[in-house]
Amino acid sequence: MPDVKSKKDILQIEAGEDSLWADFGQVERLTLSLTQTYTHTLGRYSRFFIELENQRFMATRCGRCQRVYAPPRPLCPDCLCPTYWVELAGTGTVQTFSVQHFSPGSNADVAALKTPYVFAYVLLDGASTLFPHLLIADPAQVTVGMRVRVHYVQQPVEHPIHLIHFIPVE
Ligand SMILES: [Zn+2]
User: Fold this and answer.
1) Which pTM does this prediction carry?
2) Å from CA of 81 to ligand 1 middle
3) How far is the CA of 65 from the centre of ligand 1 (A)?
4) pLDDT by position in tens, the chain (length 170)
5) Closest by alpha carbon to 70, among 53, 58, 82?
6) What is the span of the domain harbouring residue 48?
7) Cα 143-146-148 angle, rounded to 5 deg
8) CA dist 128 to 12, 97, 104, 138, Å?
């Protein structure tokens, strides 16, 4: 006899004998998977990701107001001037953070995260803006003001943003 391959549960909903829905109390719930392949361009931000493979952390600077954008912005939002690339050392300070108890599992890089993990907003040395990313550290040890640095991973990743995460500076 053929079987349904997807994960399924059969639930019984409360329905009194006199209810109109007494014959419809049994509910089958299916868990299905959806896989979608698509092409996505990193556009004018591409050099940031390309240089991560060379273990270089790039930002952009506005030639007019001198603000340094990390993550990079091709255009200064204040001056509306095109920016230019600058390299940062990759060290910085935690400005705020949250402890995550759920991983969305949207790709293999994220699905591999063990919860709880720390998501931090870091002001990189030389930058004017906050860079949000994963901080691999004991959540109980993380504080605002903690010194961190960019760490480059060695294993292959699905998306180049996962070539890096932050770690505490020893
Ligand atoms: Zn500017």
Assistant:
1) 0.78
2) 6
3) 4
4) 777 777 888 888 777 777 887 888 888 888 888 888 889 899 999 999 999 999 999 999 999 999 999 999 999 999 999 999 999 999 999 999 999 988 776 677 777 788 899 999 999 999 999 999 999 999 999 999 999 999 999 999 988 999 999 999 98
5) 58
6) 43-168
7) 130
8) 56, 18, 29, 27
Q: Is 46 left (phi over 0), alpha (psi -120 to 50) or beta?
A: alpha
- Centroid of ligand 1 to alpha carbon of 40 (angstroms): 28
Residues having C-beta closer than 5 Å to ion ligand 1: 62, 64-65, 76, 78-79
What is the chain's length?
A: 170
Residue for token digits 């004018």? Answer: 44
Cα–ligand 1 centroid distance for 146 (angstroms): 29
Number of domains in the chain: 1
